[in-house]
Amino acid sequence: MKSKKGLSMKDIAKLSGVSVATVSRVLNNNGRFSEETRKKVMEVVEKFNYQTNLVARSLRTNRSQIIGVIVPDITNEFFAAIVLAIESYCFLKGYSVFICNTNEDEEKETAYFKDLIAKGIDGLIYISGKSDKISKETLLKDIPIIFIDRRPNISSNDIVYIASDNYKGGVLATEALIKRGCRNIMILKDIRNLSTVTQRYLGYRDTLMKYNINLGEEYIVNVKKVDFEEARKAVKESIKKGLTFDSIFACTDWLALGAIAALKEEKIAIPDRVKVIGFDNISISKYSHPAISTISQNPEKLGKTAAKVLLDLIEGKTNKTTNYILPVELVLRETT
Amino acid sequence: MKSKKGLSMKDIAKLSGVSVATVSRVLNNNGRFSEETRKKVMEVVEKFNYQTNLVARSLRTNRSQIIGVIVPDITNEFFAAIVLAIESYCFLKGYSVFICNTNEDEEKETAYFKDLIAKGIDGLIYISGKSDKISKETLLKDIPIIFIDRRPNISSNDIVYIASDNYKGGVLATEALIKRGCRNIMILKDIRNLSTVTQRYLGYRDTLMKYNINLGEEYIVNVKKVDFEEARKAVKESIKKGLTFDSIFACTDWLALGAIAALKEEKIAIPDRVKVIGFDNISISKYSHPAISTISQNPEKLGKTAAKVLLDLIEGKTNKTTNYILPVELVLRETT
Fold first, then answer.
1. Share above pLDDT 90 across residues of chain A, in percent, rounded to a whole number
2. Chain A: residue nearest B3 by CA?
3. How big is chain A by its Cα radius of gyration, in Å?
4. Which of A225, A242, A259, B85 is the most exposed place for a label (fewest CB within 10 A)?
C-alpha cells in the first residue's frame, strides 16, 4: 500500500519508530495503541501528506462501500430521477454511488463497466443501451448486478431485473386513443431492440388486435435517436408521404414533443384532428403547450427498489434473484 | 496487491513458476516475456479469476485515467448538460468520468470528495453547493481541481474557476425589464451565498441604481430551495402581503416556472400585468406556456472548457491557474 507520494506503511513505521502493524492500527483506528504512538505516527503521516488509501483498505476488507450506476443519458429527466433515488437510498445506508454516463454509446458502456469493476465497486445498477447484446459472462463477476428498465436477453433465473410495466403502458396508451375514436394509430419508437420499447410496442399491437384494428407496417415509425428533432422529422415525413393517421402513440415524451412540433408546423389541430400520447411523464409533458397526455412511470420507486435489492444482495440479506415489475398509470392532459 | 479472491502477484508467480517481476510484466503487458511465459501466467490468472487491478496499477503509475465530477443536482438539466459535455470530452481523450450527485447536501459533498480522492482520481471538476465554505486545505490535494459555476471564497491565484458571466446576466435581465417599462422588479433567488446567485443579484442591483430605481428589501425574495414549489409559494406570499410589482427576475428557469404558476393562479396576466424573466435557458423554458424569456448560458462550453483545462493540468501541458468567464445571452420569448 503506497500513497501517491510513494510513502508506504513500512516507511511510516520506520520513520515513526513503531511496527507496521501499529501503523496499520492507527491509520484504521482499529485495535489498541497509546495516544503517544498515535501522535508519533500521525506526525509522520501529516509531514508526508499520506492519504489513507480507502482502495487499499477495500482490498483488505473486500468492501469498498461504493456502488456503480451505468446510465444511458443523464440529461434525460427520467434516468436522472432514477439515479437520484438510487443515490439517496444508498447514501443513507452508508454507500457512495459513482455514476457513469454512456450517452447511449456501446463502446463507452463497455469501458465504464470495466472501469467500475476494476475500481472494486461492491455492486452495480445497470441501465443498458445494448441490453440485447449483454452476455452471460458479464454476470460472472464477483459482484451483484441489477438491471433497470432495459432487460438483457438472458434467462430470468440469472438476473435481477426491475422495470415499469411497459407492456401495460402500451395497452393503456393505445386503449385511451381507441376509446376517443382513433383507428389509425401511428406508433413512434426507438429503432433499437430495447426491452422497454419492445414491450410498449407489443402492448400497442395486442390492443389493436383486440379491437380488430389492422394497420400496415407504415404505421410503425422508427427513429434512430430518441430526441425531439428525430421525431419531428419522422412525423413530417409521414405526413408528406400521405399517411392517414388520427393519433400518435409516442414511446417517450420527448418523441411526443417532437411529433407535436411537426403537427403544429403542418397546422394540424391537436387533439381535434390528431391526438398524441407520450410515455414517462417527465415534467416537460406537464408544462408544455398543449400539455401532453402520457403514461406515468415511477422513477423514484424504480431507483429505490433497485438500490434496496442491490444492498441486500451485497450484504447477504438475500440471495434471491427475481424480477420486479412496477405499475404504470395513464395521465390524461390536453393532447388526447 | 491482492485480488478479490485473495490471490497476490506472489501467489501467481509461485503457481506459474516464474518471478513476480515477470508476472507484473505480463499483467501490465509491459516489457519482455515469451509467449510461453504469458500462457503460463494467464492460465493461473484465469483459473483463479484474478482481476487485473487497475487501482493497484494506478498506484504504481500514478495515473488512474479517471476523473471525478461533483454535481449538486443531476436532475437539473443545466448541470446534466455540463456533465454530459465533460464526459464526452474526457472519454475521447481516454479518461473515464465518475459522477457524484450531492443533491445539494453538504454532508454528501464532503463524503464524495473524500471517496473520489481516495479512489485515486487524476483530477476533479467540482460544482459545489457550499462553495463559500470550501477551505484552502481542500486544494492541498495532489490533484488539480476545477470549479465550475460556483466559486469558492479563496483568492483567485489558487484556483481555476469557470463560469458564465452571471453579473452580465443579471444586468441583461434587469435592463430588458426596465426597457419594457417595468420599475417594480422583484428578484427571486436562492438564499444561499452561492457566487452565481450573488453575481446575478449584483447585476440586478447595479442596473436598478444605474436607472435611479430605488426598491425596498421586500423586493428581494429568497427561497430556501431552488424548485418550482418554493417559488410558487414565495410569489403567492408576496402577492398576499400586497407587494406592488410589475415584473420578476427569477434567478433560474425553475423559479420562473413556479412564479408563473403563482401568477396564473392569481389570474395575473403575463406579460401584460407582470413580466417574468428566468435564467439558464433549459428546455422547459422554451416549451412551457407561455414560453419563458431567459438568460442563456452555454453548459456545453462550460463543461468542455473545464474538461480541457483539467486534462491539460493533469498531463502537465499547462500549469496556469486562471479563471474563465463565458458570455451569456438574452433570449426573449412570451413572458416579457
1. 58
2. A59
3. 26
4. A242
- Could you tell me the pLDDT band of residue B5, with boundaries at 50, 70 and 90? very low
B147 φ, ψ (degrees, to nearest 5) = -95, 135
Of A135-139, B233-237, B282-286, the poorest mean pLDDT is in: A135-139
* B96 CA: distance to closest CA in chain A (Å): 7
Model pLDDT, residue B7: 61
Q: How far apart are CA B241 and CA B95, in angstroms?
A: 54
CA distance B231 to A330: 28
Instruction: Give B139-158 as a 3 state SS string.
Output: HHCCCCEEEECCCCCCCHHH
Q: What is the pLDDT of residue B285?
A: 94
On whether ipTM exceeds 0.85, the answer is no
Judged against a pLDDT cut of 90, whether residue A84 lies above it is answered with: yes
User: Which helix H or strand E contains B326, and what residues bound it?
Assistant: strand B323-326
Pairing label, strands A145-148, A185-190 = unpaired
pLDDT value at position A86?
Answer: 96
Assigned C-alpha cell, A34: 497509546
Distance CA A290, CA A292 (A): 6
CA–CA separation, B75 and B101 (whole Å): 9
What is the pLDDT confidence band of residue B20, given thresholds at 50, 70 and 90? Answer: confident
Q: One-letter amino acid identity for A94?
A: G
Shortest CB distance from B55 goes to which of A51, A118, A289? A118
In chain A, residues with a C-beta closer than 8 Å to the C-beta of B53 are 59, 118, 120
Residue type, A228: F
- Give CA angle at B276 (B274, B282), nearest 5°: 160
SS (H, E, C) A213-242: CCCCHHHEEEECCCCHHHHHHHHHHHHHCC
Q: What is the DSSP letter of B244?
A: -
CA distance A84 to A112: 19
Q: Which domains does chain B have, with CATH numbers?
A: 9-60 (1.10.260.40), 66-164+299-326 (3.40.50.2300), 166-296 (3.40.50.2300)
Residues B263 and B245: beta-carbon distance below 8 Å: no
Q: In what order do the strands lie in the sheet with A275-277?
A: A220-223, A185-190, A247-250, A275-277
Single-letter residue type at B329? E
From CA B146, how far away is CA A160, in angstroms rounded?
38
Q: What is the dihedral of CA A59, A63, A64, A68, to 10 degrees?
A: 120
Measured between CB atoms, which of A4, A55, A257 is closest to B55?
A55
Q: How many contacts, defined by CB atoms under 8 Å, are there between A and B?
A: 133
Q: CB–CB of B54 and A115 under 8 A?
A: yes
